[in-house]
Hints:
Elements: E1 9-13, E2 32-34, E3 36-39, E4 51-58, E5 62-70, E6 88-94, E7 110-116, E8 126-131, E9 137-138, E10 143-149, E11 152-160, E12 173-182, E13 193-196, E14 210-215
Parallel strand pairs: 1-4, 1-14
Antiparallel strand pairs: 2-4, 3-13, 4-5, 5-11, 6-7, 6-12, 7-8, 8-9, 10-11, 12-13, 12-14
Amino acid sequence: AGRPNGTPLNAVLLAVAPAIDGDLSDWTGASYGVAACTYGCSLRSGDSDLSGTLYLGYDSTNLYVAVQVRDDKYVQVTSGRNMYKGDDIETQFDANLTTDFTSTSLSSDDYQIGLSAGNFGTVAPNAYRWYPRSLEGSLSAVVVKAKQVADGYALEAKIPWTVFGVTPTSGNKYGFVVSISDDDQAGTAVQQSMVSSVITRKLLNPTTWGTLILAPSGAS
């Protein structure tokens, strides 16, 4: 069973892997809005201040995440563990829904991965795993590319299934949520607000996350 929160998100089985280059024109399938404010809502003025459109795909090796972010002021002065104190994207992933479906606290199969575009200059795009704490650290195996656009930025990531300890099978369901953090204070590392793909999202409670479904080929 999936989570009862929000709309299930389908990742489409891709016969050809997308080019990870920050250009989202090769994503033509279903998209999902990331605009439910889950943190710092008094500091978010609306969708043009912070929101996003999410695309998901997979193959036997990787989960592919692409996000078109609307953000009127891009600020990211840090990387790695502190990237959330800036404009970043985070995915939360429950690799085993059935064994701890009712547990309201994190376990060793619950992951939090951060994806940062860097600063389009001296700080390169990077990825970080905060949870499980026993596996915390930078993720050089994750490929992240991004492009800045007039009203925000576009980010693509290729996340090996090994990062989640998962062997993907069509039809599998996982706990899942994608969130976007916002920092509008130039030169300052601070998390001001966050929007998520599901409004119930709480960081440390996997029962509040949404559902990712590995869709069969051709589904959208």
